Amino acid sequence: MAEPIKVLIVDDHQVVRRGLRTFLEVQDDIEVVGEAADGAEGVARTEELKPDVVLMDVKMPGMDGIDALRRLRELDHPARVLIVTSFTEQRTVIPALRAGAAGYVYKDVDPDALAGAIRSVHAGHILLQPEVAGVLLSQEESNSGQGRGGSLTEREREVLGLIADGRSNREIARALVLSEKTVKTHVSNILMKLDLADRTQAALFAVRHGLTR
Question: pTM for this structure?
Answer without folding.
Answer: 0.68
